[in-house]
Amino acid sequence: MAHEQHQELIQALHDCAAECNHCFDACLQEEDVKMVAQCIRLDRECADICAFLEHAITRNSPFVSELAAVCATICEACADECEKHADHHDHCKRCAEACRRCAEACRNVA
Hints:
Elements (H helix, E strand, L loop, with lengths): L1 H4 L1 H22 L8 H22 L5 H20 L6 H20 L1
Helix pairs in contact: 2-3, 2-5, 3-4, 4-5
């Protein structure tokens, strides 16, 4: 089964989506939401593609490698943005780390 051979990626996707959702919510609570607007936007993009790819893997989609390549790109963009705020926001630091791990796992499949 495809989902068994991709168990490490599935976990990375799940963890990344969870961290992005947490970061998204925490950023909305920040005093200056405009300062983290791009972070919020990319958190949503990243969480959505991670969840989509996780589902695609479990249904044995023929497009897993292509989706993984796109997911890696989005994870990297989200990590880059979150790192801009990592010194001030722990949730951004954790999100960036999860995004980097997920991007690497995606590249291994792509």
